[in-house]
Amino acid sequence: MADITEKGEAGKTAFQQQLMFPIGEKNPYNQFFDGQSYLAPVSEKQVGIYNVTFEPGCRNHWHVHHAKSGGGQLLICVGGRGWYQAWGEAPVAMTPGTVVNIPAGVKHWHGAAADSWFAHLAIKVDGEETSNEWCEPVDDDAYAAMGK
After folding, report:
1. 35 and 60 in contact (C-beta within 8 Å)?
2. Which domain CATH number covers 63?
């Protein structure tokens, strides 16, 4: 029987059984990720809320949410184990219930622990003149040093 440490369809199926939100389809932004991620809209009216799911070891590249005013992102872990890191700061472990507020202009990344599937709700904070800037991948050695 598969568990949430396994990549691929068997691990994905096992992880889906633990989540209250769907895993969704392959992420159309996956060119900005190392590993496979999935995206499922939860709400697209009033406030954009998406369930983003990462296979073990998957993480997005460093990126910045820009805004003239307001903006940013809110992450709420809903399953598995993962990481969030702001540029120049120590990584923050994310487990179900962990909430991370990311103001506009903060360079950061987020993704799964090396040995666990990970899912978070990504909530777009309204702002004026918002945009997203994708930057370099997370350094493999720095990621590996975080452990499992």
Report:
1. no
2. 2.60.120.10
